[in-house]
Write a structure and sequence with these properties.
10 helices; alpha+beta; 28 strands; 6-stranded antiparallel sheet; 31% strand
Length: 564
Amino acid sequence: MSPGSLVLLLSILGALGLGDPGPLEDVVIDRYYIPKICLREVQMGDFIRYHYNGTFKDGKKFDSSYDRGATVAGVVGVGRLITGMDRGLQGMCVNERRHLIVPPHLGYGSIGVAGLIPPDATLYFDVIMLDIWNKDDKLQITTLSKPEHCNRTVENSDFVRYHYNGTLLDGTPFDSSYSKDSTYDTYVGTGWLIKGMDQGLLGMCAGEKRSIIIPPFLAYGEKGYGTVIPPQASLVFSVLLVDFHNPKDGVFLEHLEVPASCKRRAVTGDFVRYHYNGTLMDGTLFDSSYSRNHTYNTYIGKGYIIPGMDQGLQGVCMGERRRVVVPPHLAYGENGAGNKIPGSAVLIFDVHIIDFHNPADTVEIETVYRPEGCNITTRDRDFIRYHYNCSLLDGTKLFSSHDYEKPQEVTLGANKVIEGLNSGLLNMCAGERRVLIIPPHLGHGESGARGVPGSAVLRFEVELISMEEGVPEGYLFIWHGDPPANLYEQMDLNKDGEIPADEFSTFIKTQVAEGKGRLMPSSDPEKVIADMFRNQDRNQDGKITSEELKLKSDEDQEKIHEEL
């Protein structure tokens, strides 16, 4: 006989006035298993689901919900159950087990149930309570854990990604996102979820864990769901909210550290070098430039990076630390990227700006100290001595002339130093100090150099120690006036018709000492004179003849080579 038939028979018996309800104590109740935690007890008017075996005193079974493969569901205390059952189920907890002994007058009385239960039969029930709810129930939400910082909570129309374990009220699992190795992704408040979940997810923070108990009328109701969720089942969800966003979201910025002095902010078209840690909203690291020991280098606002980062790096200062929260529609969308960024994932980038520049940048010059009465300044071809400290914009020291015994020496405009440094050393006075900011296209470029990262902006602190006036490009010596008309005769000091190296050297040194001309500045003037002699000794026989000696101006016209 089905439970419905039993209920119908009970109604008929009640109408005929058969059976005596008897005193409550006539039902014998043995609570042989009581769970340690009992959040709720059955009361009159509650809707319950339970399993049972029904037997006679001799152990013969007359009915069993287990045999039918379906739990019994009904309301307690409204006459839909036999009186003994109504009374015997009162006060039960979920997962509690009871033995009930129901005397005939609280069962099926002197009539019994034809072919199933004899008249005046005492009934023995072994019952386990599986579910309890009431039509006045509300959603039960328990916060299990919550992040310390929660800038935003879930609202209707947000798109959420969460993990869950779903069980019935008795603990029977029916579904889990963890078993699928994928979050459950959906919109909230748009009817895509059961009503209880739509309500239960509201107000959650990313990273929060909740227990949500949903009564059947806010879940799958009388129909249940497939074979895993019975009709009229309360559902328990243990939920971990991984992340959420709204389709209308833009990039969210959090300025973690901004230098006190920010002379310039990055704009579209700038080339930025930065370090970053990339995490999901639950803190899972998916990428880091630090792990590669190399900055990420790119143009911003040009579409070389995800749109959210293109926007999020606008306006950064050098040295700034910034958190950029990027919604999926400005990141990798529904498809995600690789096996580390799930579809529809919100991305968090903690960024440290190392430097940035624009391809149109020139050398930035800051004069720290300039002596009074500065009338003579450096020009191309001048020979200078200077001290310098070179570093990256984040303060990383690269090189310093102070690490050596002597200042750095160089002829300006001779392509002996990077273009930006050469430019920054022009128009300086002896004793002047400057700070130079050199963009990479005037420094070591995209490839960098030993100890210098590619595309790095360089900072030089320079101090000009001394300077010597130079000579035009291609010259090793220039006259301060017109050269002697009879140059060869004057150079041939012993008048033997040839000029060896020592005679040539003596003559040139005399001209310099008397102020008639000057050598190309160098830390080794002897080498300069030796180079001059070698250029004039065209047949390399160790002496210069009158036919070999030529002025530089004459050679320029003849386009032979460079000399006096």
